[in-house]
Write a structure and sequence with these properties.
Beta-Lactamase, 51% helix, 11 strands, Heat Shock Protein 90, 5-stranded antiparallel beta sheet, alpha+beta, 6-stranded mixed beta sheet, 9 helices, 3 domains, Helix Hairpins
C-alpha cells in the first residue's frame, strides 16, 4: 500500500514537471513568435521606402541581455529573392518550402541550423512577401536547460520522497511492532505491559491508547480474580478443616446424644459457612451473565424472610433486629433482593456488639426505594471507604475479627458497582444501603 502510493506520487511528480517544462517552452516560443511577427510587419511596411531591403532595426528581443540576430529574405511576385541577410544571401531558401500560411510561425532548417520564422505580405505589392527569422539555438538551449532543471528537480524529489516514505514506513513499522509486542506480553500474562513512548501517527496513537486501556482493565480484573480466589481458598479451608476434624472426632469413639447434638450443631454451622461462600462464587459467575427479567418484589416480605433466616445468628449474638418498611414493591429479582439484604444484615449482626440493635429502614422515593441497614459496630475506617466498593474487599479488622468475604459485585466494573446498588451514607455508623427501582403497591 505504501509503495503503491510512492509509485503514484512519482508518476504525479513526473507528469507535473513535464507539464511545467512544456508550459515554459511554449511560453518562450510564443514570446519569440510575437516579437518576430511585430518586427516582420514593420519591415514589410517600410520595405518599399528602403528599396525592398531590410532596415538596421535590431532583431527580436530574447531577454534582458539583448536582442537576437535578425535574418530575412524579401521575395518578389515570382518567389525569387530580391534581398536577403546573412546567411540567406548566398542561397536563399525557397518560398515554397516556407509557405505555412500568412502570419503563421514556422520552423525550418538551413545549412545545418534550425530557425524560427514568419512570412508576411508586403502591403501594396501583391505577391511580394517577407521572411523574418531568428535562430532557434537560444530557444532550444533554454528548452534543454529547463528540461534538465526539471529532470534534476524530479530526480531530487523522487529521492527525497523515497527516503521520506522509507523513514515513515520504518517508524510506523517500529510502532506497529511495539504495539504488537505489547499485545503479546499481555496475552502471556504480563498485565504491566504498556505501549511506552509517544506514537506519532494519530490512528496508531489511538490503537496504542486502546491497548493500554485494555491492559489496564485486564490487569484490574486479574488482580480482583486473584484476590477473590485467595480469599475464597482461605475462607473455604477453615470451615472444611473444622468440619473434617469434627467428623473425625465424632466417629473416633462413642458419645452421648448431647455430645452428638453439639457436634452436629458445629458441623451445621460449618456447612452454613460453606454454603455462604459457595453462594458468593455463584453470584460472581452470575454477574457475567445477562440479567433476567425483573418482577415486582414486596420489600416487607423480603425483609421478613431474611430476618427469619438470620434469627439463629442474631440470637447467638444477642442482637435485636428491627425493621421499618411499609407496603413498598421494587422492580428486581427476588433472589437478588434477598441476597443483598442478607449480606448486609449478616454483616451488621456480626459486627454488632452483644446486646446491640440492628435496624432495617426502607425510605420510599419518587422512583426508587432506599434501604438502610444501621448497626452499632465500629464502622468503616475513613481510609477504607473508597475500597469497600472493590469486589470482596475487607478491611483489616474484618479480616482478623470476622469471616466475611466483602461485597459481592452484581455488575461488571467498579464504576457500575459504585453507582448501584451500594451507597455508604453515614460517617459514624457502619452500614450499607441499596437503591432499587421502586414500584408502588396499594
Amino acid at each position: 500500500m505504501t509503495w503503491g502510493l510512492f509509485l503514484l506520487s512519482v508518476l504525479t511528480l513526473g507528469g507535473s514537471f513535464a507539464t511545467i517544462a512544456a508550459l515554459l517552452d511554449g511560453y518562450q516560443e510564443r514570446e519569440l513568435d510575437r516579437e518576430l511577427l511585430q518586427i516582420a510587419r514593420q519591415e514589410a511596411l517600410e520595405a518599399p521606402a528602403n528599396n525592398f531591403t531590410f532596415s538596421s532595426r535590431p532583431g527580436p528581443a530574447r531577454n534582458d541581455v539583448g536582442p537576437l540576430e535578425k535574418y530575412g529574405v524579401i521575395f518578389d511576385e515570382q518567389g525569387k529573392a530580391v534581398a536577403a541577410t546573412q546567411p540567406f544571401d548566398v542561397a536563399p531558401p525557397s518560398i515554397s518550402d516556407l509557405d505555412a500560411g500568412p502570419d503563421a510561425p514556422l520552423d525550418f532548417a538551413f545549412s545545418g541550423r534550425r530557425y524560427r520564422g514568419v512570412v508576411v505580405p508586403i502591403p501594396g505589392f501583391d505577391g511580394r512577401r517577407l521572411l523574418l527569422a531568428a535562430s532557434r539555438g537560444e530557444l532550444d538551449g533554454d528548452s534543454r536547460f529547463v528540461r534538465k532543471a526539471m529532470g534534476t528537480a524530479f530526480a531530487a524529489s523522487v529521492v527525497w520522497l523515497f527516503l521520506a516514505i522509507g523513514w515513515l514506513t520504518r517508524r510506523n513499522m517500529r510502532e506497529h511492532a511495539r504495539i504488537a509486542e505489547t499485545l503479546r506480553r499481555v496475552a502471556t500474562g504480563d498485565m504491566k505491559a504498556r505501549v511506552a513512548g509517544d506514537v506519532s501517527d494519530w490512528d496508531l496513537r489511538r490503537v496504542g491508547s486502546d491497548v493500554d486501556e485494555i491492559a489496564e482493565r485486564l490487569g484490574t480484573l486479574v488482580q480482583h480474580q486473584r484476590r477473590f480466589i485467595a480469599h475464597a481458598a482461605h475462607e473455604l479451608r477453615s470451615p472444611l478443616t473444622a468440619l473434617h476434624g469434627e467428623l473425625q472426632q465424632a466417629l473416633r469413639k462413642e458419645r452421648t446424644a448431647q455430645e452428638y447434638r453439639e457436634s452436629l450443631t458445629f458441623c451445621l454451622r460449618a456447612s452454613h459457612r460453606l454454603k455462604h461462600l459457595t453462594d458468593d462464587l455463584l453470584e460472581l459467575a452470575r454477574a457475567e451473565q445477562p440479567a433476567k427479567l425483573a418482577e415486582a418484589v414486596d420489600l416487607d416480605d423480603a425483609l421478613a424472610d431474611v430476618v427469619e433466616s438470620l434469627a439463629p445468628l442474631a440470637s447467638e449474638k444477642n442482637v435485636e433486629v428491627q425493621r421499618d418498611c411499609g407496603k413498598i414493591a421494587v422492580l428486581a429479582r427476588r433472589s437478588e433482593v434477598e441476597r443483598i439484604i442478607r449480606n448486609l444484615l449478616d454483616n451488621a449482626i456480626r459486627h454488632s456488639p452483644k446486646g446491640g440493635v440492628v435496624r432495617l429502614e426502607v425510605t420510599p422515593g419518587d422512583e426508587t426505594a432506599l434501604l438502610r441497614v444501621r448497626d452499632q459496630g465500629p464502622g468503616v475506617p475513613e481510609a477504607e471507604r473508597e475500597r469497600v466498593f472493590e469486589p470482596f474487599h475487607r478491611s483489616a479488622p474484618a479480616r482478623v475479627e470476622a469471616r466475611g468475604a466483602g461485597l459481592v459485585p452484581r455488575h461488571r466494573g467498579n464504576d457500575r458497582l459504585r453507582e448501584q446498588p451500594w451507597d455508604l451514607l453515614d460517617r459514624d455508623a457502619y452500614f450499607d444501603a441499596a437503591r432499587l427501582p421502586r414500584r408502588s403497591t396499594n
